[in-house]
Amino acid sequence: MLQFLHSLFGTVEKGRYPEKLVEEAIERTVDGTDPWLRGVSGYRKKLRPAVVRAIDHVVALVDGLPPPLTATLSCYDDDPLIKGFFISTAEMRKIYTADRTLAEFRRGPDGDTPRIITLLTMEKREGITLGAELSGDVILRDVPQTTVTFESHRFFDPAADERTTRRRLMVRAFDHLLSLALGEISSVKSERRELERRRSLLEAKFNLLQRGGWGFAETAASEGITVTALEVGLGEIEKELLKLGGDDRAVEFYLEIVADLLGRPEVHLWAGKESLIVDRLGIKRSQAAFDAPELVLHELRNAKGRTMVVALVTLVGSDLQ
């Protein structure tokens, strides 16, 4: 893992970071997005406020996660949330033993720890089924019901203590923001390449049409292409290229993308909550009851539309064998 970020997230007060560590975080940002950003004059100064803002955000994001839930096989019946996340203890054991992250941790230097703190992530799925419901003394059949299931269970950043897990999750959240910035840069670069390809094609046609080349003249006539239309097309492409930074300042534009994203991290990665009432059959209910408790789900969401249900959990090594 990244030692400088571990130190950054683990030893200083939020918002008051040693300059050396901030500089290293800036370099990590450049390495994680586009190393050519170093060619922009004053890139560190331009990135610094955004990087500090992003660090503040991920610290608050991870600190906001509730304390770990006990997710051991022997305590399955003790927490309605755990019973909601897993159909049975058999499913729990199957998921635990199949998870590669947990298996890798068990093979590492801390693998023999009696307890493991890790982040559990899941995807919540809702569907419609037909079932029976009681209305007074009458049983209604073929009633549409909403089913809720939790799928794609995964574990992240296991450690022998909660503090270490949270610090690693802060690193992961910071890197996730970098990946989103990289995605935006890649999208812009792809758009630039397509615009440049179209510009080259139009310029070639424009030159041929101006020279009155025989082969192009026939094609132009059949396509209805004129010098005026080509000039308009070239002008539009040039406008779009300028929006993307122009040929002379493309890297500066990429730096602006990174600074904008990290400077507004709450727009790109944020936490949320959802209250959900389900019975033991996974049927969504409108009112809580003894066999249908109200569950409060904690979620992580990003600007790409991804939503994950998350929970810090405590596991024991004997359940992973």
Whole-number average pLDDT? 83
Element-by-element helix/strand order: HHHEHHHEEHHHHHEEE
- Unreliable spans are 213-222
The tally of beta strands, per DSSP, is: 6
Number of domains: 2
Structural class by helix and strand composition? alpha+beta
**Spatial separation of the terminal alpha carbons:** 26 Å
User: Level of helix content?
Assistant: 40-55%
Sheet with the most strands, sense and barrel status? 6 strands, mixed
Described by its quaternary structure, the protein is single chain
Number of helices: 11
Q: What is the radius of gyration computed over CA atoms, rounded to a whole number of angstroms? A: 27 Å
Shape: globular
Can you walk through the features of this model?
The protein folds into two domains: 1-190 and 249-321, no CATH class; 191-248, no CATH class. The protein is 51% helix and 23% strand. The protein has eleven helices and six strands. It has helices spanning 3-11, 19-32, 43-63, 80-85, 89-98, 100-107, 162-211, 214-223, 227-243, 250-263, 265-268; strands at 69-70, 115-135, 138-159, 269-277, 294-302, 307-316.
